[in-house]
């Protein structure tokens, strides 16, 4: 039987200025006892609005600041709170790790989960999976869930007040989405949800790319000054929903394997996920022999937004080290193999070095 097409998404997506004041309205059907697993800044920036939305409702709220990484011991700690306090709904408030911890806790305790992203740097909010780390912070495994979060609630004011580097990083992650899905559909490769790519998923991925091109730069300027504009709203939606649901259902290819490859290099440890994905996207387009116009459009965008285009910008000063990253990026099971004709470490090395050469031209 041919692979079945599949589309999954959060049940509900809410976005706008002060949307957290509606938290109770949007989630009251899920239960009346809530555990909020918060990052430090997530707690600081969100708890007042959330508490206000619950005024006089009689619901029980428990805010818990979590340890910073989505590790098994952290998840165990949160599960104990769920059991001891008869929690009915788990909420993740913060960046990727708080969200991943909340999703895992809810899954194991069979509770619905709601997500409140406080930055738009990754695809964590809308996807049906968590990245689990070991207690020392190194990658452990992916945890796949049977469904996506019940609700994702994005407060644009919280996003606009967060450091702009997170919005830019999210645009880097979102930049790969369309090209990776396109690569998967060309080879009938499965999505992250292990299904065939639907027309609907491709449409979301394409809209993600177009939204970045149209509004990315203006959104960056707005966010720098903490201004909320329609362009910023559009890019928040692209980073959180279009990129998240798009990648989940459209699949990954070279961009994310390049990210995985560079994470083994010590010198890249301060470069965030999204910027590495953006650099990997340039390498993917080179491997695909993409039309010059398309490559130029992507590179012009990276330059304007401040996404990396050279090895130096991602922390690599010794070209030979790229061999290690390329080997790792082409390991068995990596999504790099979803590309037409497949990719060898040697070919990837050449493409990455070429991306670097083209990128350097922008800074001369
Ligand atoms: Zn990503």
UniProtKB/TrEMBL annotation:
<dbReference type="InterPro" id="IPR018211">
    <property type="entry name" value="ADH_Fe_CS"/>
</dbReference>
<keyword id="KW-0560">Oxidoreductase</keyword>
<comment type="similarity">
    <text>Belongs to the iron-containing alcohol dehydrogenase family.</text>
</comment>
<dbReference type="Pfam" id="PF00465">
    <property type="entry name" value="Fe-ADH"/>
</dbReference>
<protein>
    <recommendedName>
        <fullName>Glycerol dehydrogenase</fullName>
        <ecNumber>1.1.1.6</ecNumber>
    </recommendedName>
</protein>
<feature type="domain" description="Alcohol dehydrogenase iron-type/glycerol dehydrogenase GldA">
    <location>
        <begin position="10"/>
        <end position="155"/>
    </location>
</feature>
<comment type="pathway">
    <text>Polyol metabolism; glycerol fermentation; glycerone phosphate from glycerol (oxidative route): step 1/2.</text>
</comment>
<keyword id="KW-0520">NAD</keyword>
<keyword id="KW-0479">Metal-binding</keyword>
<dbReference type="InterPro" id="IPR001670">
    <property type="entry name" value="ADH_Fe/GldA"/>
</dbReference>
<dbReference type="InterPro" id="IPR016205">
    <property type="entry name" value="Glycerol_DH"/>
</dbReference>
<dbReference type="GO" id="GO:0008888">
    <property type="term" value="F:glycerol dehydrogenase (NAD+) activity"/>
</dbReference>
């Amino acid at each position: 039987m041919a692979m079945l097409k599949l589309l999954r998404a959060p049940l509900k997506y809410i976005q706008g200025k002060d949307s957290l004041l509606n938290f109770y309205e949007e989630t009251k059907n899920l239960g009346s006892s809530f555990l909020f697993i918060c990052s430090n800044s997530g707690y600081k920036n969100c708890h007042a609005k959330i508490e206000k939305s619950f005024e006089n409702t009689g619901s029980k709220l428990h805010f818990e600041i979590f340890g910073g990484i989505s590790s098994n011991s952290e998840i165990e700690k949160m599960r104990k709170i769920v059991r001891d306090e008869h929690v009915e709904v788990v909420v993740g408030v913060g960046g990727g790790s708080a969200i991943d911890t909340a999703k895992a806790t809810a899954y194991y305790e069979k509770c619905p989960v709601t997500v409140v992203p406080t930055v738009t740097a990754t695809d964590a909010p809308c996807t049906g999976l968590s990245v689990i780390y070991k207690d020392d912070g190194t990658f452990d495994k992916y945890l796949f869930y049977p469904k996506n979060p019940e609700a994702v609630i994005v407060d644009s004011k919280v996003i606009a007040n967060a450091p702009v580097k997170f919005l830019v990083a999210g645009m880097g992650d979102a930049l790969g989405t369309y090209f990776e899905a396109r690569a998967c559909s060309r080879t009938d490769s499965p999505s992250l949800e292990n299904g065939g790519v639907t027309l609907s998923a491709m449409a979301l991925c394409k809209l993600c790319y177009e939204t970045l091109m149209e509004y990315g730069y203006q959104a960056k300027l707005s966010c720098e000054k903490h201004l909320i504009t329609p362009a910023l709203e559009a890019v928040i939606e692209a980073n959180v929903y279009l990129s998240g649901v798009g990648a989940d259902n459209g699949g990954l290819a070279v961009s994310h394997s390049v990210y995985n490859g560079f994470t083994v290099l010590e010198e890249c440890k301060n470069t965030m996920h999204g910027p590495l994905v953006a650099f990997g996207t340039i390498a993917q387009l080179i491997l695909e022999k993409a039309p010059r116009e398309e490559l130029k459009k992507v590179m012009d965008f990276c330059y304007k937004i401040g996404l990396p285009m050279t090895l130096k910008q991602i922390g690599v000063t010794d070209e030979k080290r790229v061999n290690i990253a390329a080997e790792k990026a082409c390991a068995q099971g990596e999504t790099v193999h979803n590309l037409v004709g497949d990719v060898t470490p040697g070919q990837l090395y050449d493409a990455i070095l070429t991306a670097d050469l083209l990128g350097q031209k922008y800074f001369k």
